[in-house]
Structures are given as structure tokens and as C-alpha cells.
Amino acid sequence: MNHQEEGAHAPYRTQTHARARPAHRFAPPRRSRPVTREATARQAVTAEAYKAVFRRHPAGVAVVAFAHEGGHTGFTATSVISVSADPPLLAFSIASSSSSWPALAAAPTVAVSFLADHQDDVSARFATSGIDRFAAGGWTPLPTGEPVIDGAVSWLRGAVEQRTAVGSSYLVSLRVLETRTRPDGAMPLVFHDRTYHRIGTGTAI
Length: 205
Fold this sequence. Notes:
Layout: E1 12-13, E2 21-22, H1 37-44, H2 47-55, E3 59-60, E4 62-68, E5 71-77, E6 81-85, E7 88-95, H3 101-104, E8 109-114, H4 120-126, E9 139-141, E10 147-149, E11 154-166, E12 169-181, E13 189-192, E14 195-198
Antiparallel strand pairs: 1-2, 3-13, 4-5, 4-8, 6-7, 7-12, 8-11, 9-10, 11-12, 13-14
């Protein structure tokens, strides 16, 4: 009868008239879950790195304002974007921790004023917490109640279409109901790298 020599490297033990069976009964190793692109991105992109990208991206400056419980609420926004021209839709974002969010969550309509290049003080005022942002004046209520900023390049009034929770913010979309633009070619206020800027005909390429 022939026997295979047992040793550290012998994978099987054989016996006459017996089925070969494994010498070691270890559980197969568990396969690790593949690392997805999304998981890699979450690990690689920090909040500071993300903010650094948008600091280099210039944006127009607007004041979003609306009537609320017999008064007015408003805030500075650089996140206003055009979504569609037909139908006319726009959107902007607001942090869920913003003091303006509870009022905005209930507002049926809002006005968005796009600031002119001399209105950096207005932008700063509507971005300051703990003050009455409307006390210094410089705004006019529309017949429907929403405040618009005097001297703004343009403004529009819109009905809130949707409020969507996204991360720690809300994305608010509006259907535009009314617009007005200054006829004198006033230039917009621009925010870039945490600083206000002016543009003019001399900056055109």
C-alpha cells in the first residue's frame, strides 16, 4: 500500500479505498468590498479644498427678500442660477442653519434683486447676522409685498416651486412671475475670492 508522505506542503491525505479529503478545513477568506469612486471622493475632498475651488469662481451678488408675518426677511446670495428660460425658472441655495430659512420655508413668493457694482455695502448688510437688515432703507416693497433693492441692476419676483433638501442646505426653485431691468446699462457687483469686484467695458475680451 502506498502512502503519500505527510508534511507541511501535503495538500491531501490519501487512504486505500477512501475518498481524498482536504487536510485543512479553513473558511475561505472574505472578499473585501470594492472601493467605489464615490467613497474615494468622500475621503479625498475636504470641505476646505472644495471651498477653495469656488473662491476662484466669480459670482454675481443678489439679495433674496420676501414678506413674512407682517415684516420682511432677506439675505445675500451668490448661488442664484438660471435653470430654464421656457418656462422661466431659477434656483438658489440656503443653509438649513440660516436664520432666514424658517421664514423662507413658508414663503409662497420672493423677490431677487441683482446688485449693482456700487452696492457692496448692501450686500454686506444683508449678509450680517443679528441686525435689522431693512432698517437702513434703500428698498421698496412691490404691490404684492416683496421688497426689491433700490438701484439694483435688475430684479425678479417668483413663486416658490420646490424646496429640496440637499446635504446641509436647501435648493429652492422659483417660477418667475415678473421682472424689471434698469435701462441705463448699470454693471453688476461681482464676488470673487472673498472680495467684491467691479467689471466694465474695459474688461471685455
